[in-house]
Structures are given as C-alpha cells and as structure tokens.
C-alpha cells in the first residue's frame, strides 16, 4: 500500500525503514548516523560493509566544523549537495576549484588532471581543511603526494571516488596515513555520497 506522507515526514520515514533493514552494526552512534545518511542517498545497504571510519573520523570532522573550516570538493555536484545553511552556522566555507580558469591552465601546462591541480590550489589555503572526494582518484593521489611531502595535513579526508581506474588503489593510499578518514572501500562512491557524508556531520554539529 502506498504511503502518502507530508514532505517533512518522508525523510523521517525513510530513516525508520533504513534502521529496520540495517539491523545490528559495530558502528558508534555518530558513525551510524553517517552510514544511514549515505544509505538514504544511495539506497545501497552494501555501505554497511564497505564504509570505514578511521582515527575517530566523524568526531574529528564534527570538531572541525564547530571550530570553522574549509571543505574542498572535487566536483561542483558534491559542492551543490552540501547543506549551505548548516555549513554557515559554524562559519565554515566550501569550495570546488575544478572549473577555475587558473586550474584548467595549470593542468594543461603540466599535462595532468584538473583534479590534481585543484588539490594543489586547495593546499595553499591557510585554514583547517576537509577534503570531500567523490569522483576523482587523481585528487586522492595528489593529496597523498602532498601529505608525504609535508605540504598538507587535513583535518579529515572523505575518500569515496566511484569508478574502475585507480579508484581502489587511490583509496588505499589514503587509508595508510595516520589522518582521520572516511573511506568507501572498493569501487563504490560518488559525489552524492561525499556530500551526504559532509551533511551527516553538519547535522550532528549543528542540529536542525
């Protein structure tokens, strides 16, 4: 039987269904809220198995949001999906540099992807950084390179690019660092997942 719900009740009912079908997990309360938000966005319960949280990642992300930080995404789609009203409550900012003219020119001159050059640009921001990567494995590869070079130390890395080429390997590069990260193991992910993870932390930092 179809359920006819008011718009405000649809999300509530969706999360009730997710909770019922998810069953028991080993995640803490904050991690579980992130997982449920990802499942709500993707309708994919496999994230129960492949979404991992390292070094108190959710707690660290919430702390960074409460203090004020800059979130950098690798796609404008992810940027568009982040809740801006919640973001502003803590004086936070969010950017995507992928379409910037200087990034495009730099990528052309170097013969690399725009995602790599966008990360290089972001690394110059003198504020606490959260990276939300849902599309480009080369963005994670550049983040790994800059961390190894001592040029980058983000508060949190959300590593969930989707696809087939260098996707799994790029995520493995991030996991090996002693840096808080939320990683979607394997091939799954996407800009919508990256945004959902950010929003789940925003809603915990600044309850609606």
Task: Give a description of the structure.
This protein has helices spanning 7-22, 29-42, 47-50, 57-67, 76-81, 84-89, 101-110, 114-122, 137-148, 167-175, 191-205, and strands at residues 51-54, 70-73, 93-96, 129-133, 156-159, 181-184. The chain is an alpha/beta fold. Helix 7 packs across helix 8 (114-122). It starts with 6 loop residues before the first helix and ends with a helix. The model has no long low-confidence stretch (mean pLDDT 95).
The radius of gyration is 17 Å
How many helices? The count is: 11
Mean pLDDT: 95
Number of separate strands: 6
* N-end to C-end Cα span: 31 Å
Low-confidence stretches: none
Q: Output the helix-strand order.
A: HHHEHEHHEHHEHEHEH
Question: What composes the largest sheet?
Answer: 6 strands, mixed
Strand content: 5-15%
Q: What order do the strands of the largest sheet run in, or round the barrel if closed?
A: 1-6-5-4-2-3
Determine the structural class based on helices, strands and strand pairing: alpha/beta
The quaternary state of the protein chains shown equals single chain
* Spatial shape: globular
Task: Work out the helicity level.
Answer: 40-55%
